[in-house]
């Protein structure tokens, strides 16, 4: 029991200091700034008050997971922490719901037009939940982001969280189902927000978007959004045909991500956690093997081949690339440790101990002291700051 208490406290400190401390006190949304020492630093594009739907949903998953762990405790203090964490999640999810409901007219238009200008926005202001950029100033049509929200809304509701409070909200969520159910023939800007590989703003059919939509449709089908207090009016319905169509197109696309991307590390989110969209084990294995063989590097996985984002050769004065320019980015693509974490989670769910150890060790080698401005010795032992009230020796024995 003591070990469990120590672990819970350890994770609570990490979740609070890395996530909850940044949650906006009014809207509950997570802004896009990061901490460097004790000073808040905005990103280069000065988007510090922008809250991405996808980032916010992923950001609250750790909070929700920890709340579920605290639920198992019989201690009154831990129960209070569970409630605190749950309400932080509810606040964030309801803020996203409110922001999207303010664009309900766009959802109605999109169901008829499938036009990029009629799509829900991919991000909102963290200060007030309103739009922060214009319809044509960003690649807003991201079916995977909306689908991720629907997927997690359904799972959180099934776990006992009361996120949806009224029939108006139920009807809007049903409209979100209509919004994403045609993902199998709706080109969008994808998980990286820029469309095709040349960044000319051309949407294309993305396997990651289709997979996330398929998972969301399966998860929310016949779910009562009011939980145990609900009735027939609060149940969400999905046509089975749309699930099967998305499944068929998804498996015909894989292991490709899209027409311009032969493979993409973002596919890890649909062949494993959180979507688990692909039913064929053979297709899952082929896709994972392709990602590991073509995108894996020393510091993480490339997003996709010939990805110019954040490379020294990228022209920062324009967003798009010329077709012949892509060759310049060959073998110098940025590597992102995030995808090693996806592979650790994949190993956990599949029970692959070797994969868990392999990618955990790779991640540990990349850890660095946040107080250091640079790493003098890449092979140096990583530094991890444990909470002051956690006994590290006791923790290591667990």
UniProtKB/TrEMBL annotation:
GO cellular component terms, semicolon-separated: phosphorylase kinase complex; plasma membrane
Record pathway: Glycan biosynthesis; glycogen metabolism
GO MF term list: calmodulin binding
UniProt domain GH15-like: residue ranges: 9-362
InterPro entries per record: 6-hairpin_glycosidase_sf (IPR008928), 6hp_glycosidase-like_sf (IPR012341), GH15-like (IPR011613), PHK_A/B_su (IPR008734)
Function recorded in the entry: Phosphorylase b kinase catalyzes the phosphorylation of serine in certain substrates, including troponin I. The alpha chain may bind calmodulin.
Protein name listed in UniProt: GH15-like domain-containing protein
Presence of the UniProt keyword Cell membrane in the record: yes
Organism: Sphaeroforma arctica JP610
Subcellular location: Cell membrane
Similarity comment: family membership: Belongs to the phosphorylase b kinase regulatory chain family.
Pfam family, one: Glyco_hydro_15
Membrane topology according to the record: Lipid-anchor
Major place of residence: membrane
One example of a Gene Ontology biological process annotation: glycogen metabolic process
């Amino acid at each position: 029991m003591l070990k469990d208490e120590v672990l819970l406290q350890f994770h609570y400190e990490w979740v609070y200091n890395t996530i909850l401390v940044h949650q906006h006190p009014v809207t509950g949304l997570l802004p896009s700034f990061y901490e460097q020492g004790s000073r808040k630093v905005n990103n280069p594009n000065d988007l510090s008050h922008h809250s991405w739907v996808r980032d916010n949903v992923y950001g609250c998953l750790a909070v929700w997971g920890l709340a579920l762990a605290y639920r198992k405790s019989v201690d009154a203090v831990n129960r209070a922490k569970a409630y605190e964490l749950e309400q932080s999640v509810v606040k964030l999810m309801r803020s996203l719901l409110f922001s999207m409901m303010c664009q309900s007219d766009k959802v109605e238009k999109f169901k008829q037009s499938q036009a990029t200008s009629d799509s829900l926005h991919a991000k909102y202001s963290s200060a007030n939940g309103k739009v922060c950029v214009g319809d044509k100033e960003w690649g807003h049509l991201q079916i995977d982001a909306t689908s991720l929200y629907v997927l997690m809304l359904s799972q959180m509701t099934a776990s006992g969280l009361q996120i949806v409070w009224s029939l108006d909200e139920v009807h809007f969520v049903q409209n979100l189902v209509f919004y994403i159910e045609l993902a199998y023939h709706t080109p969008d800007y994808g998980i990286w927000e820029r469309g095709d590989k040349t960044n000319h703003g051309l949407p294309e059919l993305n396997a990651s978007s289709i997979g996330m939509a398929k998972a969301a449709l399966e998860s929310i089908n016949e779910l009562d959004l009011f939980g145990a207090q609900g009735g027939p009016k609060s149940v969400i319905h999905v046509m089975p045909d749309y699930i099967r169509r998305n499944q068929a197109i998804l498996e015909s696309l894989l292991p490709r991500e899209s027409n311009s991307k032969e493979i993409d590390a973002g596919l890890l989110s649909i062949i494993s956690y959180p979507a688990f969209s692909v039913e064929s084990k053979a297709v899952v294995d082929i896709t994972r093997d392709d990602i590991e063989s073509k995108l894996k590097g020393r510091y993480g996985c490339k997003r996709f081949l010939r990805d110019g984002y954040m490379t020294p050769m990228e022209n920062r004065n324009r967003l798009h690339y010329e077709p012949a320019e892509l060759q310049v980015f060959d073998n110098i693509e940025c590597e992102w440790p995030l995808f090693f974490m996806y592979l650790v989670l994949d190993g956990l769910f599949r029970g692959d101990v070797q994969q868990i150890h392999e990618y955990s060790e790779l991640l540990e080698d990349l850890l660095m002291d946040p107080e250091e401005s640079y790493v003098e010795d890449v092979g140096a032992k990583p530094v991890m700051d444990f909470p002051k009230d956690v006994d590290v020796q006791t923790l290591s024995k667990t």
